[in-house]
Amino acid sequence: MTERSKRLNRPQVHGNLRVVEPGEVAVAEMGDEELMLAHGKGSEEAFAELLRRHQRGVLNYVYRMVQNRQIAEEITQEVFLALVRNAQRYKPTAKFTTYLYAIASNMVSKEWLRRKRRPKLFSLFAPWNGQSDDEAFHPLSQVCDEKADPLRAYRKTEVSEAVNEALQHLPAHQREAFVLRRFQDLSYKEISEITKVPIGTAKSRVVRAEQALRPLLAEYREYV
To answer: Domains (ranges, CATH) in the chain?
Structure first.
């Protein structure tokens, strides 16, 4: 093969963008499991795509569990660092989201243990960015479009605060099952695998959580 032919057969790069050659699959078109396998082979693009797809969801889940923005961000970072550390050992024996949220769940459990040992830990943190957690971060971003309706935007903040307050009244195992099902939209099968309980138990925990939350959120029924 001539030198010119070799150059023509190489993937082209324009600035920071690499042109996808015929036969290659763009990372945006790959499934999560494919991306993780590609990441295990050294693809930074694959990891960046996983981060783009799932960082917000993991942050939302962790925040609802620990109720502290700064700690939620730290745990979320650790979750994705764990993906990097375990990339070469990853095997797609379950859905990627099951694998991902199992890591997140384990780290949240460790945080709860640390909280029990150091009960005043969270009170030592100053509000993130000069704002309270709920002012800085509203998980219920789907409730409304604040630019279109400022009044509904204010209501969204109120609803978000009410939901987070209500979640704190649930036992940890019910809160986790409820958040994974109703906010992260995971299946009961995935929840059972993540929390290591039978599917029936996972369903029962969600139902009990809903029953407990219903009177606490009766005022906001039209939003949640």
So the answer is: 25-132 (1.10.1740.10), 145-219 (1.10.10.10)
